[in-house]
Each structure stands twice: as structure tokens, then as C-alpha cells.
Design a protein that fits this description.
Two copies of one chain form a homodimer.
Chain A: H1 2-18, H2 21-37, H3 39-55, H4 60-66, H5 70-85, E1 93-98, E2 104-111, E3 114-119, H6 124-136, E4 139-143, H7 149-165, E5 173-175, H8 182-188, E6 196-200, H9 203-212, E7 225-229, H10 235-247, E8 256-262, H11 263-277, E9 283-286, H12 288-293, H13 296-299, E10 302-304, E11 318-324, H14 327-337, E12 342-346, H15 350-359, E13 364-369, E14 386-388, E15 396-398, E16 404-415
Parallel strand pairs in A: 3-4, 3-6, 4-5, 7-8, 7-12, 8-11, 9-10, 9-11, 12-13
Antiparallel strand pairs in A: 1-2, 2-16, 14-15
Helix pairs in contact in A: 2-5, 2-6, 2-7, 3-7, 5-6, 10-11
């Protein structure tokens, strides 16, 4: 089955890659209209998934991620219309030049190819990825969670009608319409049919893809994130950044996991952190030096950090606290424990900021800003397909341009190589 | 064993990534001097490999690839000195800007990480890759062919002395000093120790890496390359380009495999191709329409093309010939048979050139130029580690910049995400 889908995707990719910006944008707008026009059918299908999920005992959080409603559909339609307004990266040229022998050389952006996207419960990802693929002229094979099968079927019908209405191949966006988990493995082995696998989900999914894929994988999404509070930091404002990074949306990958505080500031700063964040429901895991500076009135708020705590992505209102002797120790701690997703420094010392930026090699390195900004929308990319923590092709947010590759175009006057 | 090497490479990567351009260039110059100073020891070690190869029955071509001599060592030393003169991509910034909220955002080039390079008989690759890795601040684990073990040991001693002399970690460039093939598989599984696998060798090696690696692989190097001769082509000059693309160095991946000729030109052009190339020893595989236009005096030079001939990378003085009804048929043939390495058009028609460039999606697309230009040196990159035919991260020549990735640097004034 997947072999056939791969062949059809490969064939559909060529007309997608050549489609004009106007056609792609028109298809996106039609898709947005379709989502609104078909809302009753989509919501009815989604209700079947939701009640099956409730019967099956899905957690409240998962049911919430699974649920669509009129407001969420409007948001999705608005995102699709916004995508149509963004510049098209396909066709852009760069590194243009004339070589000494007269050859005219340039690189030209082309779509990446056939994307294999594997994701979990949220049905909005289906339209999100379909929209990004259409905009960038890629084809895609989607594999959503089994608990969203009815919702995804209804959404895919709208996608395929939008493609067809603008003369684009319906096979450009295909959906693995089956709950059979063996098909995930089959997708990962589809070396001729798929150019890149983009998993969107937890650490287990990313590891599984990396271990079993014969296709390049963009892994990511797992963030053990740090903020180092330098001795020169503005204490009041640092508290606000830490509060934001930890509590604004604790369940996502760019939320803060560990605060490292310079020894000189620890006695003043750590009690203030506990005081400032506990009203939001934050609990703390502190290493001995951090525990030691908390006054008796606050020490009960923090538990001693266990051996794995500084390697844990909390995804919840837990915050690790550690005192460091120096910025060197902070940088060493980050090198040892960070997943290279989002790490930052809070400081008033420009030299320390420079050295931190030079020596911390994470996908995004922050100076005096919340880790929550590591996001395609927040960094000005307009949209994102995933956040990469691997080093090849893309680091951090994968926006439109990161969904392209390039070809070399070399024009001569019947040049031969000497 | 490889686990330990991976850990040491990972540790050595950090000081490499931070090393100044001056230090890296000084190490390259010392390495060049060392190659010349140690020439007697290197050549003695190489002689052991060569005589073992002769006893073991290696082909003359392989013995030639394996052999070092004073002239080749001088060439290698000159390449290392040239590498020292090239600009350092590490630290370059791009996409710099200020967002509406005042965040200052940029991307900054950083080394790719730990490279795992697997290659076959040529010992010069050892210094080639060592030099590229030093220049770009990467670490590397090298796995050369078992038939070059003594040569590689002697070369690696020079590399490690050059690193140490400039305060760089000797573990930055490590060599798997064993003929055990199981270690290749172990290297491919070293997900924590290696960031990218770069195979340099034949199609079998690339396939093996793709199938077994848990680490991203830059596959490439296999080229079934085409030139399409449009009806408007300048016949005389087209012959020279085809002659160059086929015969200048037939054993490499960017040499020409198939000529596609527009029907209107075939009767004139194909006999001229056979006439022009057979003195160089070229033999031909022609499909029926191409055979039909050869005069009796030439038809014996060509055999009928077999079913797989148009999917064969010849690596030798064999050339496929095919007549097409139109440029569309040429583009379809290329889409079906090309490995997306190097394909071109010979034409005087600017509109046809534009359409060919738009529709042929190969790593390098040529207009009126030999496919032999798909090479880092020829395209102005100064050096290359490999030629990629996959779509992720790099297409075509992998030069210095392609051996880097980037990190996002985000500087704010204690910004929080609303």
C-alpha cells in the first residue's frame, strides 16, 4: 500500500514543484473556505473521534488536543489565509555570480520533495502540514494518530477538493487512512517514495524514527532548556523572564526546565524565584547549593534534585534550580544536560553575553529573552512545520524556506572543463 | 571501541568549534609541512600497502588509486595550503534583523559537529577530509579502506602532530585503525557520537549507509548524467561539450552517460557524435531510433541499448544515445533515468533553456556547459568533501559552508512572550 502511495506522491510532486505562486495561494484560500463551508461535516466526524476517545479512556488533556470546534476551525482557516500571504521561497536565487571562465552560476530554491509527516492526536496538524506543503510546492504523505481517523478523513476530503479545484494533483497530499501501526515502519522504509521524515510528537516517536528510518529524519521537539542568571543580571526583570519561560505554556518544548544562578547572586535571587513562581503553582527541584540558600520559610517548597532531574524535560510546572560558581560552570552544565533546543543568559555584561553566545551551541541561544521565543512565528518565519534539534539542514524552527532545498544552475557558452 | 571514540570526538569538537581562524589555518600549514617533512615515512608505509595490494591481486586501477608518490604528496600539501587561504565560514551571520517587538535576531554559522567519513582506497582522502574538518572546526572519525591501513596510519600521525602543535585536541581527527568491517556498522549506529555520515565511494557503500545508519547520511556520488541536444543547438560546439563530458575523465560521477538528441537534429548530429568520439575509444549503446539514423559505415560502432543501459552509470568510455521527439520527452527521460546529479541542455533557444532549467530538478542543471563542472573546485567553492545527490542540507558539491550549520542568536531587553 505505501509503495503505491509513494509512487503517486513522487508523480504528484513534479506538478506541485512547478505550480505558480498564484495557483498555490489560490488553493490555500480555497482550502480555508472549504474548512469553513464543511465545518458541520468536520465537527461531526471529530465528535465521533472524541466520543470514542472518551469511551477509550483518553486523558482530559488528550481529549482537549483532539477536539475541534467552530472557533478552532476559524483559527485554522485564518492561518491558511495568512500562509497564502507569505512570500513563496520557491524560485528564489542566491549565491549568483560569474566565474573567471565566464560560467554563470547560481543556486535556485526548489521544493524539498515528498515529506513524510508522522504526528499524534491533534487533527489541526493535518491542515497545518497540508497548507505548508502546498505553499512550498512539496508533496506529503501524512500519518496521523489512530484516535483522530474520522476527523482526518473529513479534513483530507477538503484538502483534496481544494487541490483538484486549482488543477493540482490530489495525490500531492495523501493520508495513511489506517490505524495499523506497522504502516509507520513501512513509511520510514520508503526510501524511494519519501525524501524526508518529519515526526511531530514526543521523544519516543523521534527516537523510533531515528532508529528505523532509511529516509533522512528531522528530529527535534525535545527541549531541556536553561536560563543562566549571571551575577550582573537585573534581578527584577530576570524574575519576569523566568516566570514567562516557565509558566506561559509549560507543556511545550521551549519552556524552561532549569535555572542556573551565579553564586554571587544566589542568596538574593533564588528565594525571589521561589517566591515569585510558586503562586503560579511551580514546584522546584534544587541541588544542594541551591537548597542551602533558601530561607527556612521557603525550603519546604523545593525538593532535593534527584540524579536525573537535570536531564528531564518537565513539560509541566516543575523547575530545576542550581547554583554555579562561574559562567564556565553554567556553560559546562548546559553542554552536559541541554538537548540543544533553547538556552539563554540573563546579564548586563556584554562580554559575558558574547562569550555565552559563542560557547553555547544550541539551536537558539538567547540573551535577555525568554526561551519561549524559539518558535517560527515568534522569530519572524511566519509559519513552522517543526522545531529541529538535530544539526543537519535546519536548526530551530523549520519555516517555509527550510521546507525547500536548492539546485545549482550553471549557464555557459558551450564551456568544457580543461 | 567506537563508543569511546565517539565520546572523545564529542569532547574534542567543542574546542575545535571555538578555535580561531588563525589557529585552524596555522594547523593546516603545519600539516602541509609535515606531509612534506614526513614524506619518506609516508611513502614507505604506502609501499607496504601497495605491495600487499599487488600480492592480493588488486586491479591496476585500484593500485593506482592507492599509490602515493612525491608528486602526489606535493599536490596534497599544496591543497592544504590553499585551504588555509580560503575564507572561514564559521562565525558568519545571516538573516540578521530586528523584529517589531525589538528582539534582535540573527543566524550564525557553526560547525556541523562530528563527521563520520567512510571511504575506499585512496589515502589522499584522509588528508583531504582532515583538512576540511580542521578548516571548518568540525571533529571527524575516519574509516578508510583496509587496503590503505599502513598509509593512513602514517598520515594520521602527521595530522595529530599538527593539531597538537597548535593546541587543538588530537582527538578531533580520529581514525578507525582496523580492517574489521563490523566497525563500519558500529560507526553508522553511533547516534550520540556522530552528527553526519559522509560516505565516499560507490553506489553499494551509499546504499549500505542509507539502510543501516541511525545518523543522518549525505549520500551521493552516483551520477547517471544526461545532455539533451536541442534542435537549435550549435552542432560543432555541442560535439566539443559532449566529447569533454564523456572523455575528459570517464571514471567519475559527473561524466556523461546519455546523450538525448531532438529528432530534427538526429540525422545530422548522431553520426557526428559517433565520428567525433570513437577516436577517443568511446563505444555506444543506442535505442532503435538512434541506431536507425546511423549510416551503414558507423552502425557497427553502436550496440542496441539493453533494458538497463539507460539506468547505468558507465564510469567508462560507454555512451548511451537516444532520439527524442521533443524537449518534453527529453525531460521525461531525465526524470525517469537520472540520478539527479548533473544534467544539461545544449541549445541556442533561451526559452527552451529556461524551461529545461525550471523542469529538470537535478543537483546541478547545465545550459551549454559540460556536466564535468559539477564539482566544488569548478563551481568556485574552493574545496569539496563530497557531491550530494540527496535533497536535504546540501545538493551538489559539499564545500566549506556546507560543512557548517547555524544557530539562532536572539538578543532582547528581558523580553517575555505575550
Amino acid at each position: 500500500m505505501l509503495n503505491e502511495m509513494g509512487k503517486r506522491a513522487r508523480a504528484a510532486f513534479r506538478p506541485m514543484a512547478r505550480a505558480s505562486t498564484e495557483t498555490k495561494n489560490a488553493a490555500l484560500r480555497t482550502l480555508a473556505e472549504g474548512v469553513m463551508a464543511e465545518a458541520p461535516a468536520i465537527l461531526a466526524a471529530n465528535a465521533r473521534d472524541v466520543s470514542a476517545g472518551q469511551v477509550g479512556g483518553l486523558s482530559e488533556a488528550l481529549i482537549d488536543r483532539l477536539t475541534l470546534n467552530a472557533k478552532r476551525l476559524s483559527g485554522i482557516a485564518a492561518d491558511l489565509r495568512a500562509l497564502a500571504e507569505l512570500p513563496d521561497p520557491v524560485g528564489e536565487t542566491f549565491d549568483e555570480g560569474v566565474l573567471p571562465n565566464g560560467l554563470r552560476v547560481r543556486r535556485q530554491r526548489v521544493p524539498l520533495g515528498v515529506l513524510g509527516v508522522i504526528y499524534e492526536s491533534r487533527p489541526n496538524v493535518t491542515l497545518d502540514v497540508a497548507g505548508l506543503a502546498i505553499k512550498t510546492g512539496n508533496a506529503a504523505i501524512l500519518r496521523g494518530g489512530s484516535e483522530t481517523l474520522h476527523s482526518n478523513r473529513a479534513l483530507m476530503a477538503v484538502v483534496q477538493r481544494a487541490l483538484a479545484q486549482h488543477g493540482l494533483p490530489a495525490d500531492a497530499i495523501q493520508f495513511i487512512d489506517s490505524a495499523d501501526r506497522a504502516l509507520v515502519l513501512e513509511l520510514l522504509q520508503l526510501a524511494d517514495g519519501v525524501d524526508v521524515i518529519i515526526p511531530r510528537g514526543g521523544a519516543g516517536l523521534h527516537r523510533f524514527c531515528r532508529e528505523h528510518s532509511r529516509v533522512p529524519v528531522i528530529t527535534g521537539g525535545v527541549g531541556v532548556c536553561h536560563l543562566y542568571v549571571d551575577e550582573s543580571a537585573d534581578v527584577e526583570r530576570a524574575l519576569d523572564v523566568i516566570h514567562n519561560a516557565k509558566t506561559q505554556r509549560p507543556s511545550v518544548c521551549n519552556s524552561l526546565d532549569t535555572v542556573l544562578v551565579h553564586r554571587a547572586l544566589a542568596g538574593e535571587f533564588l528565594p525571589a524565584v521561589v517566591d515569585h513562581l510558586r503562586p503560579a503553582g511551580v514546584t522546584f527541584r534544587a541541588e544542594p547549593r541551591a537548597l542551602a540558600v533558601l530561607p527556612t520559610s521557603l525550603v519546604s517548597q523545593a525538593s532535593p534534585a534527584g540524579p536525573d532531574d537535570f536531564d528531564t524535560e518537565w513539560m509541566s510546572l516543575v523547575l530545576g534550580l542550581k547554583v554555579v560558581e562561574s559562567m564556565d560552570e553554567a556553560i559546562e552544565h548546559i553542554a552536559a544536560h541541554s538537548t540543544a533546543h533553547s538556552d539563554g543568559i540573563l546579564t548586563r555584561d556584554a562580554a559575558n553575553a558574547r562569550r555565552f553566545v559563542a560557547e553555547v551551541d544550541s539551536a537558539a541561544v538567547f540573551v535577555n529573552a525568554s526561551t519561549r521565543f524559539n518558535d517560527g512565528g515568534q522569530l519572524g518565519l511566519g509559519a513552522e512545520a517543526a522545531v529541529s534539534t538535530q544539526r543537519l539542514h535546519v536548526r530551530g524552527p523549520m519555516g517555509l524556506r527550510e521546507l525547500t532545498t536548492y539546485k545549482w544552475v550553471v549557464e555557459g557558452d558551450y564551456h568544457v572543463r580543461p
